Amino acid sequence: MSINLTLVGQMITFTLLVWFTMKYVWPPLFDALEERKKKIADGLAAADQGNQQLDRAEKKSKDILKDAKSQSAEIINMAQKRASEIVDESRVEAKVEGERLLTSAKSQIEQELQQTREKLGKEVSDLAIKAAEQILQEEIDKTKHQAILKKATAELGKLK
Amino acid sequence: MASEAHASEGATSYIVHHLTPLTVGEGFWTLHLDTLFFSALLGGLFIWFFKVAAERATVGVPGLMQNFAEMLVEFVDQQVKDSFHGQSKLIAPLALTVFCWVFLMNFMDLFPVDLMPGVGSVMGVEYLRVVPSTDLNATFAMSISIFILIIFYSIKIKGGWGFAKELMFQPFGPWLLPFNLLLKLVEEIAKPISLALRLFGNLYAGELIFILIALLPWYVQPFLSFPWAVFHILIITLQAFIFMVLTIVYLSMAHEDH
Asked: Are the C-beta atoms of residues B21 and B34 closer than 8 Å to each other?
């Protein structure tokens, strides 16, 4: 139980141990701990951030969807409007076209009627002249009575 | 009567044998070879373990060894942070070394009392005391080293005059200077002595009780040595912890400037 030189030996051992721990053991272990702590904190922060981003993205996608819905509704509305417009337009056009066709048909009919009348008048006058010729074979000189005939023809033509 | 006296003599010599260190030299120039050997061996074990753990330390998922080492490092670091409020590169590693080394030296107490001396006697070693912390030289070596650090830091932080003023003028002011000085000197010197004697006393007594139990009949021994060993797990940890915490506290006191 006596104090002796062992004390000095033990003190040297102790000093060496403390020196070694201070130099080679503590710093790397402590640094690793600190670094891991930082890494975990960073990871948690990143997870948080990710969650926030997800929230934001969800909100954004909802907004986009809402926008798209309203836009599509608008487009459908416009399309319906346009379609009814087209229908209206074509109806008007058809009406116009029909009227045009009708008028042209009428005028054609009128024209044809006119022609037929003229022709008829001419034939009637020809016939009348022929009959008069037959009757008045000798008496009437064609050249002499030209003026009278012409007048008669003109009057016939007016009858139409 | 004669046989009883002989038996008690045998018991005494058994105890004395177990508590006698293996020595070389005379007087003060004696070396306790067993204390030096086992403490160095355990110190080497501690250094090896922590060095390997430190070398393999990664930021990623730690292995078993690193985990354990980090647990101890964090535990010690927490203790240092709790009681020491300065900046020091020395205190935390010092506390870790103190805790682990004292714990390992105390742990030798849990080996059966006859195991290593028995092996030693077979190998021709006459005396072998395996628990270094039952040697006053081992405990005083640590406490005196720490005492030197206390004085060193007191003077470094407070300055020579500051430290002297603290010794002279506290706690009762300059009018009671001699009384203050006496009180302070006793207080300072009590630090290493109490540190060393507390550890030594606990471990010496614990070892003695193990030896006493070993003297009893074999069928009684397990019923006593098992509970005592279980209890001793607490004691050796607690003593290592106390030594470490007091080291931190003393050094933080040395760092505090009034």
From this structure: yes
**Contact yes or no for B103/B114 (Cβ under 8 A):** no
CB atoms within 10 A of CB B74: 14
For A19, B43, B88, B194, the CA distances from A28, given in Å and listed in that order, are 15, 19, 16, 34
Residues of B that are catalytic: 194, 198, 202
**In chain A, whose CA is at the least distance from the CA of B129?**
A1
Which chain B residues are within 8 Å of A14, Cβ to Cβ? 97, 101, 141-142, 145
Q: Is B27 on the interface with A (CB under 8 A)?
A: yes
Interface of B with A in 103-162 (CB under 8 A): 132, 135-138, 140-142, 144-145
Q: Tell me how far apart the alpha carbons of residues A22 and B92 are, in angstroms, rounded to a whole number.
A: 8
**Residue B203: which of B236, B164, B179 has the closest Cα?**
B236
Rounded CA-CA distance B218/B32 in Å is 31
- Compute the residue count for chain A: 160
* Neighboring chain A residues of B18 at a CB cutoff of 8 Å: none
Q: What is the pLDDT of residues B40-75, one digit of tens each?
A: 999 999 999 988 888 887 777 777 888 888 888 889
A-B Cβ pairs (cutoff 8 Å, strict): 128
Are B93 and A17 in contact (CB < 8 Å)? no
Per the CB < 8 Å rule, is B137 touching A14?
Answer: no
ipTM value for the complex: 0.75
Q: Which residue of A has its CA nearest to B75?
A: A30
Q: How many angstroms separate the CA of residue B237 from the nearest CA in chain A?
A: 19
- Long-range (24+ apart) CB contacts under 8 A made by B176-183 are none
DSSP B123: T
| pLDDT band, residue B25 (cuts 50/70/90) | confident
Cα–Cα distance for residue pair B144/B199, rounded to 1 Å: 13
Mean pLDDT of all residues belonging to chain B: 85
Per-residue pLDDT reduced to its tens digit, A64-93: 999 999 999 999 999 999 999 999 999 999
Residues 6+ apart with CB under 8 A from B245: B79, B83
